[in-house]
Write a structure and sequence with these properties.
The protein is α/β, with parallel strands linked by helices and 297 residues long. 26% of the residues lie in helices and 24% in strands. It is globular.
Length: 297
Amino acid sequence: MPLGVVMKGIGGFYYIKSPSYGIVECKARGIFRKDDIIPLPGDKVSFSIVDTDKNTGLIEEILPRTSELVRPAVANVTQLVVVVAIKSPQPDFLLLDKMLITASIKDIKPVILINKIDKSTEEDVEKVKKAYENTGYKMFFLSAKTHEGFDELMDILKDKITVFAGQSGVGKSTILNRLAGSVLMETGEVSDKIERGRHTTRHAELFDLPNGGLVVDTPGFSSFELAGVELNDLELHYPEFENHLGRCRFNGCSHINEPDCVVKEAVVNGDIDNERYERFVHFYCMLKKQKDQRYRK
């Protein structure tokens, strides 16, 4: 039975890319609806051909997923590229850190992509580098206007399924259009008045890159819910904390109010970026409040 990858799903039809048959329009067998399973872009599936003339078929099996995201609804993602603009709009590092935590929870490799560096000063770039230099995350600096950084970006996308995400107006669709050498998606504009991009991406869809990679753009958004992380596990999703965990005076240290906290000492010493640490405190307090509310119910 032939195998393929779901590229997109619209109105109950799924478009499967297959080495043998090209793009095949398929429906899913009723058993998937019965089991409340929906094929997702990125799913590896086996299918049968129903009509060779029309190149249509049926999805027979969805192979086990290595990862799954809800927003966008996509499976088997291997890396998440979080796009941040140096300016216009101003960087939302709270959103960036939420996405990095989500990638860690889902065991998806994150990459930080700083766009619009043609609008930046050296001081702007150094500030971002310093904040994340001890995280171990790959960082790329890009200019969609001057093409700087595109060769390096293309290299990390090769043979992977990559999700591009970030707040509206940071240039995700423009970047993807340039990578693919054609217009994949309608690009939006940023309002000078409110510096917020118009939402232009309507659904999750995979696109081929010339080097064999597959990418999916997500709708631009300015909010992102932190879900799937337990309060006491939050520290585990900060790579720069790793060498300091378990060395605090108190077991179960929250790294906020306790004395003799090695993590706080690392912040003072500059081994952990202070602003990133403050965002950790923000997330911790938010999760604690949610946990307390659940207990009161």
